[in-house]
Amino acid sequence: xxxPVSSVRIGSIFAALVVFGxxxxxxxxxxxxxxxxxxxxxxxxxxxxxxxxxxPALALFYGGLVRTRNVLSILMQCLALTGLMSIVWVxxxxxxxxxxxxxxxxxxxxxxxxGGLSKSMMAGVTADSMSGTIPEILFAGFQMTFxxxxxxxxxxxxxxxxxxxxxxxFSTLWLLVVYVPICHMTWAGEGGLFADWGVLDFAGxxxxxxxxxxxxxxxxxxxxxxxxxxxxxxxxxxMTMTVTGTAMLWVGWFxxxxxxxxxxxxQAAMALFVTHLSASVxxxxxxxxxxxxxxxxxxxxxxxxxIAGLAAIxxxxxxxxxxxxxxxxxxxxxxxxxxxxxxxxxxxxDDSLDVFGVHGVGGFLGTVMCGIFASAIFGGNNGGADTYSxxxxxxxxxxxxxxxxxxxxxxxxxxxxxxxxxxxxxxDGDAETRGLDLSEHExxxxxx
Length: 448
Known about the structure:
Elements: H1 7-19, H2 37-65, H3 71-98, E1 130-131, E2 134-135, H4 136-154, H5 164-187, H6 193-197, H7 205-223, H8 239-258, H9 266-294, H10 299-313, H11 322-347, H12 355-373, H13 390-422, H14 429-434, H15 436-441
Antiparallel strand pairs: 1-2
Helix pairs in contact: 2-3, 2-4, 2-8, 3-4, 3-5, 4-5, 4-7, 5-7, 5-13, 7-12, 7-13, 8-9, 8-10, 9-10, 9-11, 10-11, 10-12, 11-12, 12-13
């Protein structure tokens, strides 16, 4: 039935259109307290996409790479960490990462490194609280999905040999000791140490990939190699599962990177575009390197290359253009290939699923290269700065990446040592031989 439209309703619709930008008034220029329906809808979708990256995407990607007797343990770790990290985030993680009371510009104090506890248990965060043009509770939920996937990334480095209880305790402590301070320093805004330095990290090159990658390196060294490494290990049990997970991660990454614009705008669109382009270039370059060296390209190589390109573009995605994406994607494929194959074998550490070689190295490289390709010379947006020095920004990026890496290594070692002397890190030899599916969960993910 067609309803009559009153002049009051017409006036209301006109006012709403002005507020939400459909008549030329951009949401970015609306009052801070005004909610943007478009921005909110996009971040709702992005939040779902980033959560999708952990369950099921990362679980499938990692699950296909391990041996059959350990598949369920990987799926269980991803599932359990999703729940546990979400609870920790609500209890105090969000407040410690983003509560900025007392932060003082140009003055180093405790809030340069960590937030306060005034928003613990989401105190004061209601459906009406705003963060820019979106509800604060949505911002907190979006950031929660980052806090979920970062420790989950690390399980690939010590897959098939760490106690389930140790995974839970280590991940909880690591989130609070490593992830939360780095997140605060980078993303909490003016007064955070890295933010005041001028470090550019759009979606988590430092916050996610450097922390997870370097933390994973420390973990795999401390826990030690898998039994039979490197000469007597079975190949990945299900590459179909891994490629499925790769495809899901690739799509989910659009929420990860483009969602970090926190708005449905041109920056989000460019971030999505360069994310796809970097992954595409890295996939083909890694495939080509294997083709030249081994005579045949592998599915595993192509999948790993795509993740390397995605990790490397993450810090730069909101600041660079297509030229930057192509260069970052190609460079990440070459450098991550070297680390994941040659250097790992030469040094002898058992980073089971190449978390350091892909995420640590890729995130570090992308963070530094962002300083180059964010310049308007290469089609970047200068990170919003009026003036831009490539050399100066590269130094700033390098300084931030190095400090984050060093802090992560030291803090991760301390956390692992604490877990080691209390509940222990590694399953015994018999449990490892039987597989973690049976020894830790008394279940089988396959039928004999």
